[in-house]
Structures are given as C-alpha cells and as structure tokens.
Write a structure and sequence with these properties.
Elements lengths: L1 H11 L5 E3 L6 E7 L5 H17 L1 E7 L4 H13 L4 E5 L7 H10 L3 E5 L12 E5 L1 H18 L4 E7 L5 H16 L4 E8 L4 H14 L5 E4 L5 H10 L13 E6 L2 H9 L4 E4 L2 H16 L9 E3 L2 E4 L3 H4 L12
Parallel strand pairs: 2-3, 2-4, 4-5, 5-6, 6-12, 7-8, 7-9, 9-10, 10-11
Antiparallel strand pairs: 1-3, 11-13
C-alpha cells in the first residue's frame, strides 16, 4: 500500500490538474482543490488515488489555484462532464455553496474534504471528512501536561493564535485552552497573542512575549508553519536549546510538516499534533462510492482526532504524517 501511495504522490507533484483512468473503472468522481501546491495537499491526493485504484474510480482532479470563482466554474464543468460525485477542498466554504446548490440540482453528492462546508436548507452537503481540531489540540496539550508531571515541570504557556476568521484556528485554540484549564496543576496560561498564519507576526509575537514574560517555558502553535519564526525568536534569547538543557522551551505544534517532525527528532520540540490527511483523501473517495451506490451517510460528516508524534513513538508514527510521507525510515 505504501509503495502505491508513494508512486502516486510522485506523479501528482508534477500536475496542476489530472484525470486518472484505468480500464474497468466503475465510477467517475470530480475533485476540485483550492490548491495542490503544498506537500499537505499532495498527500491528500495520494490517499485519494490509492482508494480510487482499489475501488475502480476515475478521478478528475482540478486545481483552482486559490480562485473562488474558478473553483465554482470548475465544479460546474465537472457536473457538465457527468461526474457521479464531487469532492471539494473549498477555497471559501461559503462561496462554494453556489456549487453545492448545482450539485443538488444535478442529484450529484457533494463531499467536503479537510475544510468543513456547512450546508444550508437550499444547499445540502452530502458528507465530508476532516480533522477534529478541538480533540487533536486537547490530546496534544494533555500529552504535554503528562510530560510535565513526569519531569516535575511547571509550564508557563504562551499560545500563538491563528487567524480568528479561520475556523481551524478557532477550534485549535479551544482545544488548547480547555486542556490547559483541565491541567492547571502543571500548566499556567501566561498569554495568547494573535499571529495569524504569518511568519513576521509569529516572530514578533514570540519575541515580544518572551520580553514581557521571560518565565514562559512552553509555546503552543496552531500550525507548525509558525515554527521557523518561533525558532528565530527563541534564538534571540538563546533559548533554542534541546530538551534537558538550561533555558529549553517545551514546544507543541499542529499539522505535521517536515520542519516540525525534524525538530522532534533532533530534540528541540516535544510533540507534533498530526492531521490524518492521507486517510482523509482515502475516506472521501470511499464516501463518494458509497453515496453513488445509494448508501445513507451522516450529512454532518466525519471528524478524526489525528495522532501525536513524539520522541518515543517517532519511528512508528512520523512516517504517517504528511511531512515524512514517502520518506524511508
């Protein structure tokens, strides 16, 4: 299975859009991506392609390149080409409701992937698969709390906030905050600072927070794309040091990119909260086939809690995260 996924991933790295066909396919499913120009989405595609091969599905994969209007137009074209289901990674989960309505009119199931789309009375979503961000964030911070108890630490925590217009960022903050409240014996929230998904803001938030609160010894990031900025900020205070060394700051981040996984392997970060994006791709294709065949699925979809990667389970779990996907152990 892993070899098949890797070969598919390599092929898809070269494509902005693709239609994959194999003799004997029973189903045709259209897929509209906001973008595929990131390893995270390439892993999503790999999961889809592996499931498609197993289930006899022709996938018509299109890349809207971040253009909301282009995505709606692409889905309209997919419907005109008589696809039997549509999988969508929405550029805008409200603007895409225009396409959901057209899917309803054509009696074609609409399935969201990773980014939840909330249906309305006149735009009914059939299903979707994504990450339970609240649960994943809670589990990660609970792991940090248990780590603190094991090592007799009292952690003073800084939370960097993602964009408050992004539901993923909001849910991750909810999970972090709830777990901190539940573990107040070892975790003390010092500050929450807006950083967006922005390197400069993340660096400023780290530096300013450490200046105002030098007691901070734990930083939680809602996305591991912020880690390079946090590293730069810690280096300014000579606190980018490995676990067990004086001045070390306990770090936790969510997503599962290679930079964060490398930081765990090298001893600079304690835990990465990984989104199960490969499974998300696989499960959305399975859902499309089920819906085409008339199976009833819960229109609220499926949210998965993801998994944690830390030093003790690194060799077993890191290669299931998108950042190490396809790499040799």
């Amino acid at each position: 299975m892993r070899k098949a996924l890797v070969s598919v991933l390599v092929v898809m790295m070269c494509l902005a859009s693709a239609s994959v066909f194999a003799a004997g396919n029973k189903y045709v499913v259209g897929v509209s991506f906001d973008t595929i120009n990131h390893p995270y989405w390439k892993s999503d595609i790999a999961g889809m392609q592996a499931a498609a091969k197993e289930l006899g599905v022709e996938l018509k994969i299109l890349n809207a390149q971040g253009d909301v209007n282009a995505q709606n137009h692409q889905i309209e074209n997919l419907l005109a080409s008589k696809v039997q289901a549509v999988i969508c990674i929405a550029a805008d989960n409200k603007a895409v409701l225009q396409s959901v309505k057209k899917c309803n009119q054509a009696n074609v199931p609409f399935i969201w992937n990773d980014r939840q789309v909330f249906g309305t009375a006149d735009a009914k979503v059939s299903y979707g698969v994504g990450t339970d961000n609240v649960a994943l964030a809670k589990n990660g911070v609970q792991w940090i709390a248990d780590y603190a108890r094991k090592n007799n630490l009292k952690l003073k925590v800084l939370i960097l906030l993602g964009p408050l217009t992004d539901n993923n960022a909001i849910e991750r903050d909810k999970g972090y905050s709830a777990a901190i409240d539940a573990n107040s014996d070892v975790l003390d929230l010092v500050a929450k600072v807006p950083a967006g998904w922005d390197e400069a803001k993340s660096l400023a938030a780290t530096v300013n927070s450490l200046q105002a609160h030098p007691e901070i010894n734990c930083i939680l990031m809602p996305a591991d794309l912020q880690l390079p900025a946090v590293e730069s900020g810690l280096k300014q205070y000579k606190r980018w040091v490995k676990e067990g060394q004086p001045g070390h700051v306990v770090l936790g981040a969510l997503n599962g990119d290679k930079v964060a996984l490398d930081a765990v392997k090298d001893g600079y970060e304690e835990v990465v909260m990984c989104q199960p994006i490969i499974d998300t791709g696989r499960l959305t294709v399975q859902a499309a086939v089920d819906l085409i065949n008339g199976k009833k699925l819960d229109e609220n979809g499926q949210l998965n809690p993801g998994f944690l990667v830390y030093k003790e389970n690194f060799n077993d779990k890191a290669y299931d995260a998108y950042g190490y996907f396809g790499m040799k152990k």
